[in-house]
Each structure stands twice: as C-alpha cells, then as structure tokens.
C-alpha cells in the first residue's frame, strides 16, 4: 500500500496553533489512514493509504484539522517516491554538524516550489538557495531566524511551503523505510535507529 509523508506548517510554534501529536495521530487515523506514525512536535507524520492522491490527502487533512480542531494551517503531503526523490536530488553534501542549518522547503505543487526562485537574489554568502522539482534547498548559515534567506522564506514568498531541516528529513526517510504499525523512530546516541514500543510519537 502506498506510503505518504504529511508536513504541517507553523504548528506548536510559540503559543499559536497548538496541536498535540497524539491528537494529530488520532485525526489521521479517523481520516481512514493506516500505519500512522508521528515524529517530533512540529507536525510530521507518515502513513499508508490506497484511497487518494497526495493532493487529495492534503486537502482532506487540512479540512479535518479545521473542522475538528479549529486549526487553519498549510498541509503538504508527499508520496514516498516524491519525498525520497527530494532527498536524492539535493545539490548539497551536508556535513552532520550543519544538519540543523540545511533546510528543505516542501510545497504541494511543483509550481509553488519553483516559485521560491524569486528569492534567488536574497541569500548573503555563505547562504545558498537552489530550487528543484520536489523541493527547494536552503543553507541558512546563520540559522533560519537570523539570516536574510530564512526570514524571506518565513515571509510572504514562503506561504505555500513548509521547511524541515536535514536531520528531520533523514528521520522521516528512515520511517518510510522501516515503518510498521504505529511506530516512531528515533536515533540512539551512536546514530543507530531504534523503535520504541510505545506510543507512536517522539517528543522534542
């Protein structure tokens, strides 16, 4: 059965758009999705479904979040092949110590992703921005909140995208590769993957 990744924009940031991951998981299961597993506290999950396209899933999840929880947030859903292609097509080799500063920006449509090309004049070296079919790639050397590039993506030009750092993206990749009913995946201090037995949610 096809796998998908769902990414929410702007949940559990500050005091707004609070969404416990247990509630998010329950909402996805109520939507009829199977093998749901959440990651971290920022609105990330993987699931299986044979019912809809990625776009239709995004629309349905966004509508249910609004209806059931009163949350109006951007929802991006990527099929497993598209998500893995975004990783494989990264134009940068990312050292582990820079995982938190290297971001992928995901949108529901290729047009919205490539729309970030409008920001190509914005980065100040050593910041970098590249756009592709599956994601845009940002190196925010000063952090997403302190540099020009990060601030621009968080502004009006980034309203149709949501960003995840490289560390989170790799964890989601591992979940796609290892997912089983209701797991969450985390890394041990040595970097190995482990599957905790209880509930499918990894807190920050």
Task: Describe this protein with a few key phrases.
alpha+beta; Alpha-Beta Plaits; 4-stranded antiparallel beta sheet; single chain; 204 residues; disordered C terminus
How would you sum up this structure, described in words?
This protein has 204 residues and is an alpha+beta fold. The two termini are 29 Å apart. It is globular and about 45 Å long. Helix 3 (80-88) crosses helix 6 (166-178). The chain has two domains: 3-83 and 168-185, Alpha-Beta Plaits (2-Layer Sandwich); 84-167, Alpha-Beta Plaits (2-Layer Sandwich), CATH 3.30.70. It has helices spanning 21-30, 54-69, 80-88, 110-114, 148-154, 166-178; strands at 3-8, 34-39, 44-48, 75-79, 102-107, 128-131, 136-139, 161-165, 186-187, 193-194.
Question: What is the string of helix and strand elements?
Answer: EHEEHEHEHEEHEHEE
Cα separation of the termini: 29 Å
Task: Give me the side-by-side strand order of the main sheet.
Answer: 2-3-1-4
Helix percent band: 25-40%
State the CATH superfamily name of the largest domain. SP0830-like domains
Beta-strand share of residues:
15-25%
Number of strands: 10
Number of helical stretches of at least 4 residues: 6
Radius of gyration: 16 Å
> What is the CATH class name of the largest domain?
Alpha Beta
Looking at the structure, the CATH topology of the largest domain is Alpha-Beta Plaits
Average of pLDDT: 83
Structural class: alpha+beta
Segments where pLDDT lies below 50 for 5+ residues?
180-204
Specify the overall morphology.
Answer: globular
> Could you give a short account of the major beta sheet?
4 strands, antiparallel
Compute the number of structural domains.
2
